[in-house]
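Q: Could you fold this chain for me?
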Amino acid sequence: QLQLVESGGNLVQPGGTLRLSCAASGYTLDSYAIGWFRQAPGKEREGVSCISASGKNTNYADSVKGRFTISRDNTKNTVYLQMNSLKPEDTAVYYCAAAENRPSVVVGCTVGPRGVRVFGSWGQGTQVTVSS
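A: Sure. Below is the predicted structure, expressed as structure tokens.
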């Protein structure tokens, strides 16, 4: 069974940077699309960024475009989310999850709850807090 574990969350000041990691065990990640999602208190879980199995195709929510970068190293069975220029509104628990590697999955992961629901094997999450 595929298991994902997130790490790298922390308390950071506005304008700061963090790199989140999503490490897999049980299966290799190289056949899955992977997404990063976040959930703030009282809000629905939302798609932040997704990447295809090969890493060639990526997608970002408008709110993070130009600030966040998703990447993957299939030799290390790990997907990363580099977060720059962090804002207080980025505060949330961040999760990674896996899905079948289809173009519609990567494109759709940032488009509402439907795009979130196709993902599974959710990790336990890592807290990101942006505050001065």
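A (continued): Strands lie at 3-7, 11-12, 18-25, 32-39, 46-51, 58-60, 68-73, 78-83, 92-100, 126-130.
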